[in-house]
Amino acid sequence: MKYQVDEKGYYGEFGGAWIPEMMFTNVDELKRRYLEIIESEAFKKEFDQLLKDYVGRPSPLYYASRLSEHYGSKIYLKREDLNHTGSHKLNNTIGQILLAQQLGKTRIIAETGAGQHGVATATVCALKGIKCIVYMGALDVSRQAPNVKKMKMLGAEVIPVHSGNKTLKDATNEAMRDWINNPEDTHYIIGSVVGPHPYPDMVARFQSVISAEMKKQLLEQTGSEFPTRILACVGGGSNAAGAFYHFLDDEQVELIGVEAAGKGVDTDETAATLTVGTPGVLHSSRTVLMQNEDGQITEPYSISAGLDYPGIGPLHAHLFKTGRAKFLAATDEEVLQAVLLLTQKEGIIPALESAHALAALDKIKMNPDDVNVINLSGSGNKDMETYLDYFGY
Ligand SMILES: *Cc1c(COP(=O)(O)O)cnc(C)c1O
After folding, report:
1. Considering only CA atoms, which residue is closest to atom 13 of ligand 1?
2. Which residue has the CA at smallest separation from atom 10 of ligand 1?
3. Which of 100, 109, 246, 320 would be 105's cystine partner, CB 3.0–4.6 Å?
4. Mutation test of ligand 1: which of 78, 377, 384 has the most ligand atoms closer than 8 Å to its C-beta?
5. Are 325 and 185 contained in the same domain?
6. By alpha-carbon position, which residue is closest to atom 2 of ligand 1?
7. Residue 5 covered by a domain
8. How many whole angstroms from 21 Cα to the centroid of ligand 1?
């Protein structure tokens, strides 16, 4: 239980709910009711049913034999890329839309950077016939046109935000303002294990289906539910939180999170929060973030839009601080090589984000009998343009 959130919403010194007074009602309602709702039999039944019939779970645990041969150690891939919409993100948005319904909410808001969380939110709103508003920085709206069109086709309203840098942080501020103004009928769906308590815990619980399935599948395939190590990429940290969750107290299992080094952790173009960041408050949570000496957030950079975030969830800040998990960083260049390796060894084109976890295999020492599980968080379909440009096919 050492790594679970405490009653005040903290993981050690990280977390909490650093919210403006005016958001108290919204967050307090969630905090009071989320556990009772998501632990009820009726909720679990509908959540499990949708994960099975709509998302397509359980996702396979695949023994990658040619990749294993290449590295001289056993490598398994948890195939979140095979979920409906191509990543782990739907596990969370399904959970939150069901919670919103239980809370009697009739309107959903979300913020999105690259648009992937926006699409996952618009998807579940279509599924449930609930009104959906997605805030997105105006710069991101122009950079991510295909996802904007997808959200609109799914029936969502996309509102471009013109303040600040016109990116994710500005979209987040606008979503919070909306929520403050509409506390009665609106639920705010946050897309990772970030934000004020109870979001980090709630999202980790929804994503924990990943490690629950892994335990069963490992037992069937290897005779033990405990692997040697688990590797997952970390943006906000939700796929990693889900992959680690049921192993947190099994200290013999090594947990490795991989952040985006971008052009390198010693350059200004990076998103490796735990390497270059310092403690502070971001997105209403005390965590580690990238900031300058005046406490201004520094703009992160990564080739992968999903890891391009200046903070990290408070659970991971705690796992880092306590040493329970190790955190590495992979550069754009290393990641692209890892994409090609998996593609040509296994016939699986991974998302740029997920390939950060794959790239870390070159950075660790593995023994022949080790069981290494990579959480393959998403499919490379969305990144094909980048791949074709870079590799020149
Ligand atoms: C959004 C995304 C991520 C990063 O988010 P986390 O909350 O850190 O998991 C990673 N992989 C894929 C495929 C994504 O779409």
Report:
1. 378
2. 353
3. 100
4. 377
5. no
6. 306
7. no
8. 30
The catalytic residue positions are 89, 111, 377
DSSP class of residue 53 equals: I
- Find tokens 């949570």 and name the residue: 285
Q: Are 237 and 313 in contact (CB under 8 A)?
A: yes
81 CA: nearest ligand 1 atom: 13
- Euclidean distance between the first and final Cα of the chain, in Å? 50
Give the model's pLDDT for residue 1. 66
Q: pLDDT value at position 358?
A: 99
Nearest to 208 by CA among 294, 355, 91: 91
CATH of the domain at 158: 3.40.50.1100
Cis bond upstream, residue 198 (ω within 30): yes
Structural contact between residues 282 and 274, judged by C-beta atoms closer than 8 angstroms? no
If we measure between CA atoms, which residue out of 140, 135, 142, 118 comes closest to residue 177?
Answer: 135
In short, whether 172's Cβ falls inside 6 Å of ligand 1 is no
| CA 240 to centroid of ligand 1, rounded, Å | 9
Q: Which domain holds residue 386?
A: 56-87+208-391
The answer to whether the bond into 58 is cis (omega within 30° of 0) is yes
Low-confidence ranges of the chain (pLDDT < 70): 1
Q: Structural domain tally of the chain?
A: 2
The β-bridge partners of 24 are none
Encoded tokens for 235:
């943006």
Residues 151 and 192 in one domain: yes
For 298-347, write each residue's pLDDT tens digit.
999 999 989 999 999 999 999 999 999 999 999 999 999 999 999 999 99
